Amino acid sequence: MAALFTGKVLMANRERDEVETERELGRALENKVLLLYFGSGRCPRCRRFSPLLKDFFVRLTDEFYVERASQLVLVYVSRDETEEQQSAFLRTMPKRWLALPFGDGFGRELGLRFAVSEVPTVVVLKPNGEVIAANAVEEIERVGPACFRNWQEAAELVDRNFLLAEDFDEWSMRSITDPFRRLKYKLDKKTEAKNKERKEEGEES
């Protein structure tokens, strides 16, 4: 997904920090479902939808609701009339949101690329840039955070940290001794092979 933003700049919400290097973009976007939110703080429909999207995002990423943040990232693509309007809107949204700088021409390119004809629009993308949903506004309104599971499956995300509770219990009990067990197994096999060779040499002589 970082390839989509190669050579571009993303802003961390409510901060002056820019996320622009290949390494930073990779860390921020890799192996995650990406939401492109085309909206405006002045649009009446956006004003009704944005609080729902905020709650949706927070319930999937905030430690108050979940032990580990979902593999989800959101980039705000502004249709605001002024930079002040964009800044005022973003101050009311989660800090984890990213945003294109105000007036960045790349926002228009993204709008054309994904055929965005109205706001609010939420384009849902796989990590490789393929479209999961051209506009998920109604789905988010209707289903809420539960729809992320469908996106996660569609994106075939690799959840490297996930272990079922029973697997974790079993793993934690054996993880300390496993390396020693494997080492002992290798040594036993090596000893067995050497003994076999000596026996064969003795028989030949």
UniProtKB/TrEMBL annotation:
<protein>
    <submittedName>
        <fullName>NXNL1 protein</fullName>
    </submittedName>
</protein>
<feature type="domain" description="Thioredoxin">
    <location>
        <begin position="1"/>
        <end position="163"/>
    </location>
</feature>
<dbReference type="Pfam" id="PF13905">
    <property type="entry name" value="Thioredoxin_8"/>
</dbReference>
<dbReference type="GO" id="GO:0045494">
    <property type="term" value="P:photoreceptor cell maintenance"/>
</dbReference>
<dbReference type="InterPro" id="IPR013766">
    <property type="entry name" value="Thioredoxin_domain"/>
</dbReference>
<dbReference type="InterPro" id="IPR036249">
    <property type="entry name" value="Thioredoxin-like_sf"/>
</dbReference>
<dbReference type="InterPro" id="IPR012336">
    <property type="entry name" value="Thioredoxin-like_fold"/>
</dbReference>
<dbReference type="GO" id="GO:0005739">
    <property type="term" value="C:mitochondrion"/>
</dbReference>
<dbReference type="InterPro" id="IPR029520">
    <property type="entry name" value="RdCVF"/>
</dbReference>
